[in-house]
Each structure stands twice: as C-alpha cells, then as structure tokens.
Amino acid sequence: MCETDVYIIDTDGEKLFAKEVASMSPKQNGYIFVDIYGRKYEADSVEIVYIDFIGHRVILRRLG
Questions:
Q1: What is the pTM of this model?
Q2: Which of 4, 8, 28, 39 can pair with 56 through a Cys bridge, CB separation 3.0 to 4.6 Å?
Q3: InterPro entries recorded for this chain (predicted)?
Q4: Each residue of 38-50: pLDDT tens digit?
C-alpha cells in the first residue's frame, strides 16, 4: 500500500502528526487528513512545505 505519514515542523524539528494517511483535502487555512482506519486529523493554520511521493511523507509548517 502507499499510505503517507504527515509531519509538522516546529522549533524542535519535524514531529509526526498522522500515520498511514490515505487522503488529504484542503480546508480554509489548513487540511483534513484521513488514515486507512477512517480516523480524521485536522491541521489548522499550516502550509505545505513539501511532499515526498517516493518517501510517502507530507511536511507541513505552522503559519504565523
């Protein structure tokens, strides 16, 4: 399978936000992620830094 892990960058570096994410949808000022088990994770006030399709990683950064 090709699930993705989502990380948020903070002052201590990258921290895991969600594992085994199967879908990602934009919302106002953030994103909604849903993992393979149907759990929903909402990230507010973030932007995408980069997406690594080969490494199955999405890296986010807090805005402001």
A1: 0.91
A2: 4
A3: CooT (IPR019300)
A4: 999 999 999 999 9
**7 pLDDT more than 80:** yes
Domain ranges of the chain: 4-62
On the 0-12 / 13-18 / 19+ scale of CB atoms within 10 A, 32 is: middle
- DSSP-based helix, strand, coil % in the chain, nearest 5: 0, 70, 30
Q: 4, 50 in Cβ contact below 8 A?
A: no
The two structure tokens encoding residue 53: 């399709």
The encoded tokens of residue 44 equal: 């507010």
